[in-house]
Amino acid sequence: MNLPVPQVCYIPMLQHTGAAAEPVVKKGDIVSEGELIGRALGEDSVNVHASVPGKVIDIIDSRFFNVQQKTVLIEAEGAFTTTGSSPSELNDWRNKDTAILLEMIRTSGVAGLGGDAFPTAAKLTPPDGLKIDTLIVNGAESEPYLTSDDVIMNTYPREIIEGIQITLKIIGISKAIIAVEDNKKPAIRALNEAIKHIQPEEKISVKQLQSKYPQGSEKQLVYTLLNRVIPNSEPPQNSGVVVINAGTIFAIREAVLFNKPLIDRVITVSGDMINRPGNYKVRMGTRISEIIEECGGLKGVPGRIVIGGPMRGISVDDMELPVIKSTSGILFLSDKETCNGDSVSCIRCGRCVSVCPSGLIPRNIAGAVEKREFDLAASFHPEACIMCSCCSYVCPAKRPLSYLVGIALESLQAEKVIKG
Length: 420
Ligand code: SF4
Ligand code: SF4
Hints:
The chain has helices at about 100-105, 120-125, 150-155, 155-170, 185-195, 220-225, 245-260, 290-295, 350-355, 360-370, 375-380, 390-395, 400-420, and strands at about 10, 20-25, 30, 35-40, 50, 55-65, 65-75, 135-140, 175-180, 205-210, 240-245, 265-270, 280-285, 305, 315, 330-335. About 30% of the residues lie in helices and about 20% in strands. The termini are far apart. The chain has four domains: about 10-75, CATH 2.40.50.100; about 95-260, Rossmann fold (3-Layer(aba) Sandwich), CATH 3.40.50; about 265-335, Ubiquitin-like (UB roll); about 350-420, no CATH class. It is built from 13 helices and 16 strands. The strands form four sheets. Strands 13-12-16-14-15 form a five-stranded mixed β-sheet, covered by helices on one side. A four-stranded antiparallel β-sheet has the order 1-7-6-3, with no helix packed on it. Strands 10-9-8-11 form a four-stranded parallel β-sheet, sandwiched between helices. The chain has about 425 residues and is of the alpha/beta class. Strand 14 and strand 15 (about 315) form a beta hairpin. Helix 4 (about 155-170) crosses helix 5 and helix 4 crosses helix 7 (about 245-260). It binds iron/sulfur cluster (2 copies). One iron/sulfur cluster binds near residues 346, 347, 351, 397 and 399.
């Protein structure tokens, strides 16, 4: 279901991993829907487009998601030329050069929609000399509450398969595995049905994964599906694999077939405190306050509002934050759904160690960070953390373990930058 178009869209220039885009519009400009308003600054940046037609009423310095950045405010008016009508002609991607297809993805500002918002064109351009043999399509959301990819795979299975075919052509390989958890039976059936229509030389298959958390991290997928171990701090490409989330595959198809920039996405709105939970197509730049209103309002004061999933998402209290490319969901959780409570000292129960999928000792890393002994924390390899938050979840002492491991990781990365 589409949420109504907001009157004013707040469109940040940093909606992705990497460098912020640079605004190419000024206050007072009239823009069309899908027009470029922020130009990518380099390969690790992503173009940003107007998610509504209208007038640029301001360009503000904002501090969204703890990052200082420019945000373009567009007041909606005029015709919806990109999403308002069905395109009369589709691009014939099969007869286009791969470089042109890749450029279409780059131009359209596609970024990973699973939560990291990594520039997709960069992901599809592995460094010279790296041989890729498999595309893994990540349909395993694994975090509780989040179901947007499930809905997309179930509703648009043929489009997902076509998006995969396009992506395989760009990478220059023929093998793709769609990883879906076994509790998503309708999506699995729909994808398998769609696969019946592909050519025999296209080796696209669906692999059912056990429904458990964490399951959807790239490292784990590559290990589970291909039995390949990705060394810490290395991307999956080094193991011959490109991993792309199902929603991103859908966006790739739209970019290539319709020249459609990434101006909207499906997000999950959920939690006990929202009146009308569901999966909604939302324009980038729609603020949380508007989403609350369109979803029937809140039942009371949430114990926590989370952008993303309950385990790896970020808690927020600013209702003016906009939906961006990396927003997979917004959760309005009740006190009962959260683990709010005071943290006490470690009782050395070992639960955090036994649940950690990366084989870390979270209590040791956390203890070292609390004592500001960052070298000691680094010696426990926080770089292997996949930020699943399982350690925090099981800790009976309610210690903020994943947060502290994250600090250890940041400190390690900062040290690497200083040392060059
Ligand atoms: S968040 Fe905790 S449990 Fe998860 S990988 Fe990191 S240290 Fe291990
Ligand atoms: S789970 Fe919590 S209490 Fe148990 S060892 Fe880990 S940090 Fe300590």
